[in-house]
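Q: I'm writing up a methods section and want to include an example of the input and output format. Could you take the sequence below and give the corresponding predicted structure tokens, formatted cleanly so I can copy it straight into the document?
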Amino acid sequence: MKKLRIILIIFLAVAALSFKLYYNKVKLDKNSKLADNQQLTVPVRLIDVKKMKINLDFTESGSFSASHELVLLSESQGRVSQLLVHTGDFVREGQVIAKLDEEIARSQYALAELNFNKLTSDMLKYQELLKGHAITNQQFEEAKISVANAKTNLAMAKKTLENTVIKAPIQGTITKRYIEKGSLLTPGAMVVEIVDISNLKFTTSISESQLSFVYTGQKVMIKASAGKDEYNGIVRMISVKADDAKRYELEIEVANKSAKTIRSGMEGIVLFRYDNPYEALVIPRKCLIGSIKEPVVYMIENHKARTISIKTGIMTDDYVEVMNGLNENDKVVINGQINLHNGSIVTFVL
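A: Here is the clean output for your methods example:
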């Protein structure tokens, strides 16, 4: 009997606890629904999507590099007998950089010349003998082949002799010198590095939306970061392939001034200027949330916020062109986005 009483007491305690838990759950659900009904609204300000004329002028940063620069290689073998330039010297195209010992090359040329002259003389004799049928046609043809080979050997020997005088193939400044007087050069050995900065190329990149407003031959203005001077430039190359950031590389030709104020490696800014404004569907830039690559705006439907992905085009300091995702007279949030999420209930402020 005592055991039965204990079981009954435990059963009643469990039942009471279960009832209490159920009662608390019902109360929490009721309070949650009440809180939902009393949810605070987020104040926002809206603006119309509209068409307007925007200024197409834009700037891009980039860097200067020499239009022509090369490492001059030796085409001959020999010891440097004369070295006529120093690092920092300006050289003109065809100017002598260095001379190699030419004794062996000159001897080889003289021998090749003697051989060529001898074989040419023999061929002329064979020609007369052929007329008198003293030799066969085959013998005469072999003599002609020997002369042709000798002529090739003579040309090679002459070129080898000429290559003992190393000349600058372009004008420019000697930025590096790899040899000294007495150095032994072999074909392919580095001699000097020459950089021509009389004309430079300015390299930058533009977005897909800017691409339609830039063309080869277009005149632009460039300013080097190191000074106040402005330089005229001409767009010479537009890449046909975008990089990983979906931008297209540009090369702009720039004529350096007489003082050579721009140096290879300097940075600068290019200005693309347009006289005619461009009409486009636009919104203020501060309507955007998220990244420029994946722009999003908030629209309001039935007093609830909803995110809309859009495609942007031309961007100015204040406005951005909307190419897809919105229509004229649509309303988007311009203030209050920081407190919004999908489904937020809003109120409108002026």
